[in-house]
Amino acid sequence: MEHTYFITGFPGFIATKLLEALRHKYPSSQFYLLTLKQERKIAEQKLKDCDKNTVLLEGDITKEGLGLPDYLRREIAEKITHCIHLAALYDLTAAFSPSYSCNVLGTEHVIKFVKGCKNIKRFCYFSTAYVSGNEKGKIVESCLSEPAGFRNYYEQTKYEAERMVRMYIDELPITIIRPGIIVGDSKTGVTIKFDGPYFMMRFLRRLSALPIPYIGRTTSKIHLVPVDFIVNASIFLMHDKRGESKTYHLLSPSSPNIHDAYTLICRELIDKKPSWHLPRSIADRMLSISFISKWLGVPRETLSYFSHEAEYDTSQLVQDLEGTGIACPPFEEYVPVLVRYYKENAADASLKRY
């Protein structure tokens, strides 16, 4: 047996994709997957073709001991070589209390578990690039500076959680992953949720019969990252020695600006080009009206990412992936695939997130 993995957040999108890739790369490894009680049936369905080396554990990171029986937790702690902590409340509209409970207290409980894993080789923690909050200018991978403010409780609690993880970076073999905005597979378009840039697609389809506006005027970039790049880069960095005690911005060194990305999506989706500018202040007031926001399919909270004047450093990522063949493809190469998948599945209610 090559490795023994403990993965939180199953059957989430990244957890599911990571499991598939790890089982392919390390077929004789064992996997313990932590899932919530209410998600057990979905998790079991996704594991129907898995062998006995994959074990589903019903638990909850917000509870002491991860909601697992003491004997079971002690038993698996003796075996674990790699812990991948993905479970989090990924919701820009969530209130503080549930965000703090899941993202901060949950991470504290996972760290406590990992500290008891005697054979641990790597603790891979999934943070987010947006722990930078509303900071402007260059955001480096190697440090975590407290920003002047946050745009939502998701950013704030993920910042608090990463700060906690970094406290143990000299005690545990840690790799911190900070993805940008995750989208579907760059080759198939497959995703399990239509959020982030997919809100933009829903908005464009709603207004397709009208002259299409740009939302505000900005030179900001949008940091979209296909899930297959996230998976491939993370697997390499969590197993290679060079990834230990480091933090990585998992996004493209050449992320497009919002204007260009929006134009590309518009052309692919409705075969039109935006022709005028809607001031962001007006868009903000419109989306503050609940029924308009719901009809357009765009949460008001997403607007702040349309004018985010931050530059995310990826020098450590590029250096450590050199020679591996792993690189984030340019947005213009995979946007047709994302849009095609959206068109084919836009009516699927299970994919909608707003």
UniProtKB/TrEMBL annotation:
Entry superkingdom: Bacteria
SUPFAM superfamilies: NAD(P)-binding Rossmann-fold domains
Thioester reductase (TE) domain segment(s): 7-233
Gene Ontology molecular function: alcohol-forming very long-chain fatty acyl-CoA reductase activity
Pfam family, one: NAD_binding_4
Name of the protein this chain belongs to: Thioester reductase (TE) domain-containing protein
Organism the protein comes from: Fictibacillus arsenicus
